[in-house]
């Protein structure tokens, strides 16, 4: 297959690079490289302002299945979206805080929402003014999403749906203005039946509470969210059809974003290779506490394998860009990158050797945990979760086995 880009795409590349370099100035220049995986807490104020800057440039909503400019956004082809994403990542532009609304909720509203819902919510997303988070997982219903217990009941007095329950692992919940919530609206219903896809305003004092979850890396970009009679503003797709809408959203979750992610992976791999070279020392003699010399065949082979697998992931992502509706493509992509990134974290500390287990000399009692970690240590700790969040490896393999290969379902 030919994975090269055409002349139109290269013209867009030059335009995108020019716009980005011209706007990544002042406070946005200070936010370069901030807000990636494991560091969602960094530079939130500047990144939120940057979201509005992207909106003014028409760069939000490029992949929406709508006419260009319908909500102020410019429509780009799939390859055009890849070009923009590559330039964005190459210049280390600030990590997006609006990607959940742009890449998850907006396509879902386009597919399942009413015209009124699209007109109400898409403009705010396209302008970068309204941020979203996702209320799916619960303490007892993560990978088994059909087991959720959060409920939404009609208030007899005002007829409004009021949401009660707990969600967990909610990214960007502290920054979000809205949350799309999967809740049980039919009393006594079980599993996939009786669920609804609700849009809930986060600013409801006393009814919505967000509690950060501190991770072993020291950061807390994930949160618990508690709903206590919170009002649901909208139901998408009709009451009782939440499972269909929720599954439709998950099918939209991975695509061009996978290619963007891989550019960040490449930068991380480059840092690990650089650490290996530094550990080898002049002439390959080996640095103190490092990898032990350029002649280590195991580490060299692992580095080469990581590079080769990353190239294969890119080609697979490009090959499947247009495979919307393929139930297996998102699961295959998740299995590939989740395992790859986890192995990279392991390789990062292996290259460092025994020194990876130590903190700074002045890392004493009371020192904030996150301030005592270097890049390799944070990478190792954060990537422990890569094969779990977003659908565990076991769940992805079940999806491929049952929905793609037609194998018998796992006994329950």
From TrEMBL:
This is Acyl-CoA dehydrogenase. The lineage of its organism: Bacteria, Bacillati, Actinomycetota, Actinomycetes, Kitasatosporales. GO terms for cellular component: plasma membrane. It comes from the Bacteria. GO terms for molecular function: flavin adenine dinucleotide binding; oxidoreductase activity, acting on the CH-CH group of donors. It comes from Streptomyces roseus. Residues 8-129 form the Acyl-CoA dehydrogenase/oxidase N-terminal domain. Belongs to the acyl-CoA dehydrogenase family. Residues 240-405 form the Acyl-CoA dehydrogenase/oxidase C-terminal domain. SUPFAM superfamilies: Acyl-CoA dehydrogenase C-terminal domain-like (SSF47203), Acyl-CoA dehydrogenase NM domain-like (SSF56645). Residues 133-228 form the Acyl-CoA oxidase/dehydrogenase middle domain. Keywords: FAD, Flavoprotein, Oxidoreductase. Its cofactor is FAD. InterPro entries: Acyl-CoA_Oxase/DH_mid-dom (IPR006091), Acyl-CoA_Oxase/DH_mid-dom_sf (IPR046373), AcylCo_DH-like_C (IPR036250), AcylCo_DH/oxidase_C (IPR009075), AcylCoA_DH/ox_N (IPR013786), AcylCoA_DH/ox_N_sf (IPR037069), AcylCoA_DH/oxidase_NM_dom_sf (IPR009100), Mycobact_Acyl-CoA_DH (IPR052161). PANTHER family: ACYL-COA DEHYDROGENASE, ACYL-COA DEHYDROGENASE FADE29.
């Amino acid at each position: 297959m030919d994975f090269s880009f055409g002349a139109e795409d290269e013209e867009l590349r030059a335009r995108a690079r020019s716009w980005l370099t011209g706007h990544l100035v002042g406070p946005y220049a200070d936010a370069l490289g901030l807000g990636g995986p494991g560091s969602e807490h960094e530079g939130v104020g500047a990144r939120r302002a940057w979201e509005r800057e992207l909106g003014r440039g028409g760069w939000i909503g490029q992949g929406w299945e709508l006419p260009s400019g319908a909500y102020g956004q410019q429509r780009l082809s799939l390859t055009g979206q890849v070009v923009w994403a590559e330039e964005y990542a190459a210049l280390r532009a600030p990590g997006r805080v609006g990607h959940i609304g742009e890449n998850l909720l907006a396509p879902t509203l386009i597919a399942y929402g009413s015209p009124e819902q699209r007109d109400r919510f898409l403009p705010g997303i396209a302008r970068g003014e309204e941020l979203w988070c996702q209320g799916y997982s619960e303490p007892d219903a993560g990978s088994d999403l059909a087991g959720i217990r959060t409920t939404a009941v009609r208030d007899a007095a005002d007829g409004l749906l009021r949401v009660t329950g707990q969600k967990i692992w909610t990214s960007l919940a502290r920054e979000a203005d809205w949350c799309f919530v999967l809740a049980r609206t039919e009393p006594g219903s079980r599993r996939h039946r009786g669920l609804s896809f609700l849009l809930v305003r986060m600013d409801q004092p006393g009814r919505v509470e967000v509690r950060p979850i501190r991770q072993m890396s020291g950061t807390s970009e994930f949160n618990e969210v508690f709903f206590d009679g919170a009002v649901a503003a909208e139901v998408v797709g009709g009451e009782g059809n939440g499972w269909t809408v929720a599954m439709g959203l998950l099918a939209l979750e991975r695509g061009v974003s996978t290619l963007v992610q891989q550019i960040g992976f490449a930068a991380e791999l480059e840092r690990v290779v650089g650490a290996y070279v530094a550990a080898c020392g002049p002439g390959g003699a080996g640095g103190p506490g490092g990898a032990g010399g350029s002649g280590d065949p195991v580490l060299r082979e692992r580095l080469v394998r990581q590079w080769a697998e990353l190239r294969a992931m890119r080609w697979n992502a490009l090959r499947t860009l247009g495979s919307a509706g393929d139930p297996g493509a998102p699961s295959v992509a998740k299995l590939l990158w989740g395992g790859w990134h986890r192995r990279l974290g392991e390789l990062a500390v292996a290259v460092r050797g025994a020194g990876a287990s130590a903190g700074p000399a002045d890392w004493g009692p009371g020192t904030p945990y996150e301030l005592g970690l270097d890049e390799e240590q944070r990478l190792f700790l954060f990537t422990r979760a890569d094969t779990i969040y977003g659908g565990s490896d076991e769940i992805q393999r079940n999806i491929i086995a049952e929905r793609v290969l037609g194998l018998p379902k796992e006994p329950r």
